[in-house]
Amino acid sequence: MKKIQISPSILSADFSQLGNEIKRLEDAGADMIHVDVMDGHFVPNLTIGPPVIKALKKQSSILFDVHLMISPVHKYIKAYADAGADIITIHPEATDDLKSSISKIKELKRKVGVSLNPETKIDTIINFLEDINLVLIMSVNPGFGGQKFMPEVLSKIKELKKIQEEKKLNFDIEIDGGINFDNAKIAINAGANILVSGTTIFKSNNGDIKKNIELLKSN
Length: 219
Description:
alpha/beta; 8-stranded parallel sheet; about 20% strand; TIM Barrel
């Protein structure tokens, strides 16, 4: 079984102190930093772009797990790779040619992630599983932080885990959306090995992020 990793979402961080917030997460035992990039087009919200990621990356040594919720995504992949993204996760719906976009990320020597929205079927990516490093299962509709966890996506994780074991593949299964102390265990039991969490990590237990990361891992 893969080691459980925590990827805190900086969407819930203090944006006026982002450099310090990432340092706090690093010191508290986070395995990577989850960076949500939204364009106001593919999803109805706007966040940050390559210049901010580049500035933050200079101040930290932790992996940047960059989730691109932008369309068309293909032409922006290089900009985020150059900015310091270690993992680049894209949505099948955001590219005209998923195979080409996966190849581009690999050419840039970055890890490839593909994200499935709650309504997106595994069939969409079944032929690409050997080429990707991570599948991100969205347990909310993407675009906003603080949404309620959708338990119906757990069956998708179980199906993905079964395919992974049958085909002896080695990709990570990441889950993002409403992850807290109550549902972390069921997500892990279903087969997820990377948990993305924002509100729970930054706000629970009076903001004791070290304790919150440890609690999520030990579920």
